Task: structure prediction
Amino acid sequence: MTDVIVVHFDKHQTNDSRNALVSDGRATLEQDTGIAPHLFDTIPTQYANEIIDIATAERLADALPGEAYDWPYHTKSKPNRRIRILTDCGQIPLERHTRLMRLATLRSVDAYFHKVRSNVRATARPGRTASSNGRAWDRHYFYNPATLCKVLEIYRFKHNWMGTRATTETPAMKIGLAADKVYERDLIG
Result:
């Protein structure tokens, strides 16, 4: 079964407002669990996640199926997170529902896009100057968008099937599509 989840968050917060939201979230977590933030940090992640799921389950008890939920335990990377499970028809068990709420994040997508922007120069964010009148262009961009599509396909293949020297398990291996990494010698030889 596949769950479709829409995640909204306010990415235009200043650092000070993000820190204030994190403090509010930690205070809410302390209020809901009775565990002080400095003690909560010492709990192993697996158990901390279970505690968060139990606290979330209590908050979700009166929520309607498919209703948007404001995540109360703010993090710095996802302030004011609002989650809505589109596939929720009231038949998702509460334990699974709370776990989905906790895991609903864009962190892995953001990390992948950051890798692409860092490793493929043509996808880097452009710098703006006073003389550009708001226009954005970089000398490393491709003039033909089809070329960028081809480069991104090559990068996606390398990321999913080949990885780097330090990669022990590629994404294709993690989901069972490959038994081992693909090496350059396999492609060229």
